[in-house]
Structure formats: C-alpha cells, structure tokens
Amino acid sequence: MREVVIDGQSLTLEEAVAISNGSARAILSEDARVAMLISRNAIEQILLSDQVVYGINTGFGAMSSVRIDGDDLEDLQTNLIRSHACGVGDTMEPEQVLLMMVFRANSLAKGVSGIRPEIVDLLLSMVNSGIAPVVPRIGSLGASGDLAPLSHMSLAMIGEGDCMIRGEDGWSQTSSTDALNQSNLSPVVLGAKEGLSLINGTSQMCAYMTITLLNMDKLTMAADASVACSIEAIKGSHAPFDARIHLNRPQRGQSISAARISEMLKGSQIMLSHADCDRVQDAYCFRCSPQVHGPVIDLLSETRRMLEIEINSATDNPLVFVDGTTIEVVSGGNFHGQNIAMASDSIAIACHELASISERRINQVLDPNWSGQSAFLAKTEGLESGFMIIQYIAAALLSELHLLANPATTSNVPVSMGKEDHVSMGATGAYRSLKASEILSQVIANELICSAEAIDRIVESPGDGVSSIVDWVRTNVKPFEADRTMTSECETLCNELLSGGLQRIFE
Q1: Most distant CA pair in the chain: distance in Å?
Q2: Domain containing 50: what range?
Q3: Is the CB of residue 474 less than 8 Å from the CB of residue 388?
Q4: pLDDT at 279
Q5: Which of helix, strand or coil describes residue 137?
Q6: Could you tell me which residues come within 8 angstroms of residue 392 by beta carbon, excluding any fewer than 6 positions away?
Q7: Is residue 451 within 8 Å of residue 499, measured between CB atoms?
C-alpha cells in the first residue's frame, strides 16, 4: 500500500480521499514532528510562567476572561470535548469522518497549534486502522471551527463515545474503547490547548467540499457527454462547438466544454446524413451548452485552488509562533469558513444550472417535434408512456435543486453571548452542495438514458465518442421494449457516474 506523507504543506484532495477509503496509508513527516515539538515546548514554557494566554489557561469563547488553575487544565480540555460533543441529526458517513480526520491531522502537522505529535499519531493510526468515530452531522456554524463534529471525533480519542470499524464485510459499530483496543491503540489524556486544537478548524466542511468537488469534476464531463448524446439523438447541429467560436470568447471552461463535446461527436454519420437539413439553429439547451457548462468548470478550478490551500492551512486559534527564544501566541480567525461557504453557495447554484439545461434537453429528446421520433420514445404511443416520467423525475429533481441553491452564507446567527457574532455556515453549505451534486447526477443519468434510447433507433451511427457512451449506458440500462419500472436502472447509472465509470471508458 502506498504511503502519503502528512506534513501540513503538500496534501492533495486525491491523496486525502485515498487515505480515507483505505487505498493509501498516512504517515507523519519527521519535519512536521519536529515543528510540533517546538510549538508544544512553547506551550509548556508558558505554563511554567505566570502568563495568562487564551486557549491555554483560560476559558473559551465568551468565558475567555476566566483564568484556569494549572491543576485543572486537563479537566478543562476534557470538559471542552464532552460539552461540545452535542451534535444532532444523521451521522456522517464513516469515510467522510476519516477524511475529516485526515484534514485535521494535516492542519495540526503544520506545527503552529501547540499540540503533541502523539495526538496526531493517534489520529492517523485511527484513520489507517479504519476507525471512524460516530459523528452527528449537524452542529457546526462554520466559524470557531467545526466544533461539535470535531468534538465527537475527539471524544473517541479519549476513549468515549462510539466508533465505526471498517472490516471485510463493511462497517460495524462498537465502543471507542473496544475500537482502539482492537488496533492496539490507547486513548489519550489531553493536555493544555490540545482539545481546543483538535476541534477548532474547518475540517468537516473541507471533507464535504472535497467530495463535492470530486463529484463535480466527474459530472461536468458527464454533462458534456450528455450534450453530445442528445445532439445526436435529435440530429442536431455540430456547428456551435466549432473551436473558432470559442477562440473568440476565450473563456477557459467554455473552450474545454466545447472541445470535449466536439471530440465525442467526431466520426458522426448522423451529422453527414443531415447535411442539407433545414434546421438552422437548435435550442439554447444545445447551442449554448458550452457557455453554461464552461463557467462551472471555471468555478471548480478556482474552488480546487482555494480548497487545497485550506486543507494545508492552520485553522485553529490561537496559533503558536516560535522564533529562536521568542514565543508569541496570537489569536486570530483562521477557523472562519467564509471561503468554503461562498464556494459552496456557488456550486449549489452550478448544480441547479447544469440540471436545468439537462432537463430541457431531455424534453427535446422526448418531443417528436424536435426528435422526429415517437412521443416519449414509446413503441406504441398512447398505449405506452415510454420515458414520459423520466422527464417528470428530472423536473422534480430540479425543484429539489432549486431549494438547495438558496445561499447558506446569508443565515448568520450570532452566538456565544455575541462574542462570535458572524458565522459562515460553511459546514451547512458544503453538505448542501454535496447533496446537490448527488441530485445532479440523477438528472444527467436520466438524460443519458433518454438519448441512448433515441440513438439506438437512428439508422446512421453516431460519433465515435457518443457510440462508446451509449454502449456504456447499455451495460447498466436495458433498451426499451415495453413500459417497465426504471428506478433501479436510473439509480445504478447515477452511481456509476459518481464513481467515475463514464470517465474510465475514455482512459
């Protein structure tokens, strides 16, 4: 199994996901270990002095002015974890929790959080052993860090709460103590600042946003593939994808989308057979698809840039800076997840737009006025409904996405007696965007099902790329012979889209 070095500097999204799904193993870099020891020694020096420093020997939030006696500092950290572990709602998926743990470990590995390397060692050992604390999803405000979710994570590290364990037959639940014992691991006793360092960060929202982003990378390609298929299904024009058009509006994402669609249409006999067709222009949902898909590609590129900075950042508070013999503990606000929150709002809107234009293409493929085929692709019109309800489902999904497209960032609620008076709601937004990406996959799957069926009924062969896509669809969805329930086929195809099945046929 390959190893990924956790150093707080160079982790990629793909590496983090590989660690969380068990296909790679995380190890802490020696440089990170040294940096962590230096910052921890600084904490110990402060404890030996008479200084009062927030997060080390004080209360938290609105109680930051309360000094805590040295004898009570371990209790302070334990109480912090227990009191903040009060999340509610459905639990996070175990691999989502493991991804969150990887991000928390990488952030602490930067060596400015004042936490012992042994704490991060335990965190990574749990990940490598497939031990995922049971974490309720709801509780983070996206500022002051993802406090409640990360407290549930930390609760397991002190031997309390429950964990899920990855086994050959899937996941099973047991107590945290038993889970640690099974992997020859021991709970930790948290020292000054260590509990705060564990829970004060953007790790949950980063986990959700990472999965969302990787989903969307697959789905933008799938959206382009569905355009190419639907173009062939209605015997539409290839002209809108001419590179010369896009070179004269050099938006990067637009050009990528147009080039992908054009490549999939190469070798089309359908196009040649309709060279003298009297249809001058197709509807916007075909003709303008690169102009709609392209901005999403650009958005994802910028989101990836931001997110890879975020997962390699120190996002707790305060931070410990050591320069020779000079020690400074500086309070700031790196825990505030506004960048992730705003990106999540944009991605949720992007999901709606990709689904909206996809649903319009579904409508045209099923409409004989555009496709030239039977209504709803029924074999016997009237007696059969064909794919009529496929469009209904797409419309219902679009309504779900319309609700999810509402911004999370505008729902600020001041907390902690007004001390924390502006929060991002980034965790809420990132989870919402993840759900939106999953719904989008269902709409695109429905379009591919309809276009594949229409292409099967055209005598001429489609473009080479489109032909490969239709063959792939047919491995998951049977041709239409008569009305049948299609729920399982639709769900199978959207799962295949999210797992990268479509991309693999072009590798």
Answers
A1: 88
A2: 2-201
A3: no
A4: 66
A5: strand
A6: none
A7: no
Answer yes or no: 54 catalytic. yes
Cis check: omega of the bond before 318, within 30 degrees of 0 = yes
Q: How many domains does the chain have?
A: 2
Q: Do residue 47 and residue 83 come from a single domain? A: yes
Same domain, 127 and 256: no
Report the DSSP pairing between strands 136-138 and 170-175. Answer: unpaired
Amino acid identity at 140: S
Do 253 and 150 have their domain in common? no
166 within 8 A of 94, measured Cβ to Cβ: yes
Six-digit token pair at 74?
């371990």
Q: Does one domain contain both 78 and 100?
A: yes
Q: Which of 201, 217, 239 is the last residue of a domain?
A: 201
pLDDT in tens, 435-473: 999 999 999 999 999 999 999 999 999 999 999 999 999
| Cβ–Cβ under 8 Å, residues 116 and 40 | yes
Query: How far, CA to CA in Å, does 130 sit from each of 119, 165, 167, 203?
Result: 17, 6, 8, 18
Report the mean per-residue pLDDT for the chain: 94
| 227 within 8 A of 187, measured Cβ to Cβ | no
Is the pLDDT at 171 greater than 90, yes or no? Answer: yes
* pTM, two decimal places: 0.95
The active-site residue, picked from 54, 284, 392, 431, is 54
Assigned token pair, 65: 């002015």
How much is the pLDDT for 276? 63
- What pLDDT, on a 0 to 100 scale, did the predictor assign at position 274? 65
CA distance 318 to 323: 16
66: exposed, middle or buried (C-beta count within 10 Å: 0-12, 13-18, 19+)? exposed
Q: Which of 194, 46, 220 is nearest to 117 (CA)?
A: 194
- Which tokens hold the place of 202? 């953007």
Q: pLDDT of 249-306, one tens digit each?
A: 999 999 999 999 999 999 999 988 666 666 668 999 999 999 999 999 999 999 999 9
pLDDT digits (tens, 9 = 90+) for 46-67: 988 878 888 788 867 666 667 7
What is the DSSP code (8-state) at residue 210? H
Q: What is the CATH number of the domain that holds 465?
A: 1.20.200.10
